[in-house]
Known about the structure:
alpha+beta, Immunoglobulin-like, 41% helix, binds diaminopropanoic acid, alanyl aminopeptidase activity, EC 3.4.11.2
Amino acid sequence: PAPVLRADYAPPVWQVPEIALEFDLDPARTQVTGRLSVVRAGTGPLRLDGDGLTADAVSVDGVPADWTMDGDQLVIDLAGDAHLVEIRVTIAPEANTQLMGLYASDGLLCTQCEAEGFRRIMFFPDRPDVLARYAVRLVADRARYPVLLSNGDHVDSGTLPDGRHYADWRDPFPKPSYLFALVAGDLAVNRDSFVTGSGKVVELGIWVREHDLGRTGHAMHALKTAMAWDERVYGREYDLGVFNIVAVSDFNFGAMENKGLNIFNSRYVLADPDTATDQDYDAVATVVAHEYFHNWSGNRVTCRDWFQLSLKEGFTVFRDQQYSADQGSAAVKRIEDVRVLRAAQFPEDGGPLAHPIRPDSYIEISNFYTATIYNKGAEVIRMMHTMLGEAAFRAGSDLYFDRHDGTAATCEDFVAAMEDASGHDLGMFRLWYRQAGTPRVHAALDFDAPGGRARLRLQQVVPATPGQPDKQAMPMPLRIALFGEVSGTKLLPEQTVMLDGAHQEILFEGIGERPVLSINRGFSAPVTIESDRSAADLAFLSAHDDDPFARYEAMQQLMVDTLVDDVATGNADLTPVIAAVKATLADPALEPAFVAEAVLLPSEAYLGDQMPVVDPQAVTRAWDRLRGALGAELIADWRGVYAGMAAGGDSLEAAGKGMRRLRGVALGYIVASGAADGPALAAAQYEAAGTMTDRQTALSALAMTASAERDAAFAAFHARYADNGLVLDKWFQTQALAPRSDTIDVVERLARHPDFVMTNPNRLRSLVGAFAVNQRAFHDPSGRGYRFLGEMVVAIDRINPQTAAKLVPPLGRWSRFDAARGAMMRAELERVLGTEGLSKDVFEQVSKSLG
Ligand code: DPP
Ligand code: ZN
């Protein structure tokens, strides 16, 4: 398949200002009639995209028309400048296992059109710079599909003969086809309303299966909070009279921001204490906010082409991060965001699939809904926020929305608005959009004691990535502070240093004692810092830094340095880490949620990322040694924390959640210590749990062990939640993530379990996706893990290419491992590539991964 190039962008030859769609819905045979008012905008025939469609009838201005197919495009030669084109097609939603276009899920009919799903419903110029007003009529069997929803306002409904009925919807806002949506089904609704700043009443509805109605309260609360937040922080008001959310069990994405009718993966809607963890609660709130925020950053201002995807996704992730930070502990939220970036984006940026946040080419756009576009995209927006400051950034976003409202814009438009509103020159900063790769910044601090001066030397390198051998230095804001080793206090106020070349020196005067460097505070730039700070300096910062992120970071770096040393020598000195963890546990000024983050070990995968060649077994040995030592040496501390944090009870307030989190971490260390009562303690917590959080934590702790308690808890969990798919996902995932040497056996067995359903993306991610990031299990020296993943990718590709392609990247990391593993990983990729009838989704990921 040929790549699509950003450089080839050309404006559309025909615009479609209006479209009327009529659906005669039936799972086996749905008839769709489209009436497109087309208006000439250039020279050439009308070309309409299709994917698996055949036209039953085509007419132009009421007269049957001549047309041809050019590949998947339907082509009509039109004489004039404006015509009405009517097309009828027939589709089969129940046969649509790709979950793109119109499909059936659990008795519902629903759509997913981003990025290119609309062309599986109707022939259309399926590109985001063609914006149309939609009028939609849905017709369906009344008993089977009593609820009929689409975008915009409900304008009419009524009954028809033969037990059928119809509903008419009109969306007054022009939108690209990827934002079209419909839902038909037997749904219950949680209704509420929101009064906007200008006094308009918005009817809110969350639509779910009847038995899930009691699990919608949290999402509704989050939606209203997000609506108020976007008015307050960005001056953005909602624009329609209704806002609906529908929960669907089979869904490729997390959720979809269709205008006025968001469709959600049910895991990001449903929550109650018995079935959702505190983490799930937070994820629901974040995703609800994210999709809501798209109403402005994505819908009112959309993307000119898919190369601009980060324009809406990076900005909207940044907005949802700000929102979530405002709802609880901003420090803990920042730590979580950076953890995600490092776990998902850094490896991508350093591997064969690396791409800039504004890519130059793609074969299948679905493969570019990546951590780079989303999370690194958000970091790039965050840097502009840091450089411009809150007020100028807000002026820039106001100008951007104002200038581009109702149109399809580019990343350049966004940066230009920021520049124009702030007067800031972002010329070189644009490199962040063009260049892939995680910059490495080397920082060295010299102290001249007699002169009372400190000199900081910074050096940056942007590594080569596929197609980009040579890189330019990129401007970045680095928040920096110096702490006095003796006094334990900050020697100078924090500064934001703009590193805007390959080298830079900063001189600090009036320094009266040896300074310790705190750099990239708050993770102000998405880079890797290399410094030669000693274990003592890092331990010092972990106790004294007044920036919570920097404090966390110092502890992490201390742990990483110790573990990397232990991987190499097998006998690294563990005492500095143990002492630092002990001090953190004992510090009464720290909030429990922060302590929980600070004392957790970096993942085995992250440690692997720090090594020139990953040795998974050596990492596992070092990791187990440090984890066991922390557990055993501090056993009294962990028991104290475990008992003390019980006071948090089952409260869903932030404080209760933080205490549960720390208690869970303590339980993990107690079990890891090897204490004889570890499994029994976890089992007791499992039995007594009043929340899914406590139950899940106990289950995860037991999953580490080989114990009767473990088997009993997993059996009880399965029995208790046998009819709740979202909770069963946790049952699969917890086993797939277990840090045990027999996890590969367990996973192979689970793949044959009757509850392992290949048509459900959540289930695939919870077993196969989770397993592939479990470094010690996936990289089993036998190569069985690779074989398992390769076979899964091939099998899933026949059902759902988009989800199959998302599972490929772990195999693409072959060059990071020893020769034997690398060869087995490559062989698996070759085998997948040789499969007949491979989708272009998987083809792109596999061929690029082979390099
Ligand atoms: N629905 C996906 C998201 O919101 C893609 N737009 O990120
Ligand atoms: Zn999004």
